[in-house]
Structure formats: C-alpha cells, structure tokens
Amino acid sequence: MRARDLAVDFPTVTLDTPMMEAARLLADQDLPGLIVVDDGGLPRTVLPGTQVLRLAVPRYCQDDPALARVVDEAHADVFVRSLAGRTVRECLPEDPRELPVTDPDATVLEIASLMARTRSPLVAVVGDGRLCGAVTLQALLDRVLAS
Questions:
Q1: Which residues form the CBS domain (predicted)?
Q2: Are 61 and 53 in contact (CB under 8 A)?
Q3: How much is the pTM?
C-alpha cells in the first residue's frame, strides 16, 4: 500500500487564517491537525491539534499543572479565547521542524517513520507539484492493524 492509496482530501488553512477559525475547523471535522499551505497551495507546515492547545493554554498552567486546578471553572472553560485576534502565522513555532510531506509512492512504513520522526498526526502527500491529500494517523493505523 502506498501513500496515494491512503491519501484523502484534507482541509487546509493559510498563514492568514484566523486561529479561532482554524480551531473550529479542527473541532467541527474531528481533525488531528491542519495543513498550512502557502500562496501556491503547497504545504508550508502541519499544525497539529495539540499545538493549537499549547498556544491556547496559559503558559503557567503548562509549567505547573497544579495551577490549572486553582482556576475557577468559568474561566477554565474559556481558555481558548486567547486565540482570538491571532492568525495561524502568529501561532507557528519560530523554529521550523521537518515538514511531514511525502510523495504518492511512499510506503506505509515510510509514512509511519515520517509521522514518528516529526511527531505529526498527519502527513501531506504532494505529487506533480500539487497537494494530493493527506494520510492521517488513524488511516495509517487502520491499514496496518487490518493486515
């Protein structure tokens, strides 16, 4: 099985997409992450859903989880509002990591290796100079475990 066989159409966002819109897309479609594309429609990076949470959760709660417990429930339920007014561009890490992109001929093991190495729940599939789709961790595991 090759990447072309596992790839599905996948929503994308741009650098100028509002973060709240990106977070809603993640939630509404139960996505593991988002592919951020450049002006030419090619992948620039993958924004995992966990990175969106990392950007929304106050740093002090990440550094000391006990502090998250002292925040009252009303305020704890709205922490994601901190993303309002910010774009995807503003929320990307400063140090770019390896881009989880592969070609349509990549094997399941190549895709799994790329996911593991980049800690990405999805891999963009690019062929003939265009985004062909994405392989998600779920689709990959479904295929591997069915064998």
A1: 94-147
A2: no
A3: 0.84
Tokens read off for 45: 């990076």
Instruction: List, as one string, the DSSP characters of 42-110.
Output: -EEEEEEHHHHHHHHS-HHHHH-HHHHHHS-HHHHTTGGGGGTT-BHHHHS-SS-----EE-TT-BHHH
The series of mean pLDDT values per 10 residues for the chain, 147 residues long, is 93 94 92 93 90 82 81 71 86 80 96 94 94 95 88
Residue 113 tokens, joined: 């290796």
Q: Which amino acid is at 137?
A: L
What are the structural domains, with CATH classification, of the chain? 3-146 (3.10.580.10)
SS3 of residue 17 by DSSP: coil
Mode of pairing for the β-strands spanning 33-37 and 130-136: unpaired
